[in-house]
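Support request from a user on the community tier.

User writes: "When I paste my C-alpha cells into the form, the page sometimes reloads and wipes my input. The last time it worked, I copied everything first. Here is what I submitted, just in case something in the input itself triggers the reload:"
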C-alpha cells in the first residue's frame, strides 16, 4: 500500500467537496475575500510574491527565535568554553651564577613563583569562607619579599598601605617645642 502525504488528502477532499473544478487562484481569492483587511486585494503575481516573501521572513524570524531563546543555554555554555581557557606552564627557569675575582660562585638570580589572583565579586557566595581562604595568600603576597624572605610586621602593614593607598596605622606622634 502506498503512503500519501497529508496535503494530498486535503486536496482530494476539497476537490470532491466541490462539484466544479476550482483553480488555486479562485481558492486564494476566496480566502482574501473572507479576510478583514485584504478583501479588496485581487489575486495577481504580486500577491504570490508577497506571500512568498512573508513566508521567507516568517521562517527567518522563527529560526532566530529558536537560536536566541530556545537554544540560549547551549550557546551561552559554548561561549563560556571558547572564552575562558586555563593553561599551566611547567617550565622552570634556571638560576644564573657568576664568578667573582676569587673564583667564588655568586648567585645572580633565583627562581620564584609569582601568581596573579583575580576575583569576580558576583561569584563569591560565602564571604567568610572566602576571607579564610584568601588571607594566607594575601599574607604571602604582602608580607614576604617575592617569596624569598619574610619581612617584619610593620613593613607588611606598610606594604598594605601602599597597595590600598589608605592609612592603616595611626600617624607617629609629633612633638612641638615652643
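"...and here is what came back when it finally went through:"
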Amino acid at each position: 500500500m502506498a503512503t500519501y502525504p497529508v496535503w494530498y488528502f486535503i486536496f482530494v477532499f476539497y476537490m470532491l467537496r466541490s462539484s466544479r473544478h476550482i483553480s488555486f487562484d479562485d481558492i486564494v481569492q476566496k480566502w482574501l475575500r473572507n479576510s478583514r483587511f485584504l478583501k479588496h486585494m485581487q489575486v495577481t503575481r504580486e500577491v504570490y510574491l508577497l506571500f512568498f516573501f512573508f513566508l521567507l521572513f516568517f521562517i527567518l524570524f522563527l529560526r532566530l527565535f529558536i537560536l536566541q531563546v530556545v537554544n540560549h543555554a547551549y550557546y551561552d555554555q559554548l561561549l563560556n568554553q571558547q572564552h575562558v581557557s586555563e593553561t599551566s606552564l611547567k617550565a622552570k627557569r634556571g638560576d644564573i651564577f657568576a664568578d667573582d675575582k676569587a673564583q667564588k660562585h655568586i648567585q645572580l638570580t633565583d627562581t620564584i613563583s609569582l601568581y596573579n589572583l583575580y576575583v569576580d565579586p558576583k561569584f563569591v557566595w560565602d564571604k567568610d569562607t572566602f576571607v579564610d581562604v584568601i588571607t594566607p595568600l594575601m599574607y604571602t603576597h604582602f608580607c614576604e619579599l617575592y617569596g624569598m624572605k619574610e619581612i617584619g610586621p610593620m613593613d607588611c602593614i606598610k606594604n598594605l598601605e601602599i597597595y590600598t593607598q589608605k592609612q592603616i596605622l595611626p600617624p607617629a606622634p609629633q612633638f612641638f617645642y615652643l
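Agent notes: The reload is a front-end session timeout and is unrelated to the input. The first strand starts at residue 97 and ends at 99. The helical segments are 6-17, 24-34, 45-70, 72-83, 127-143, 153-164. Escalated to web team.
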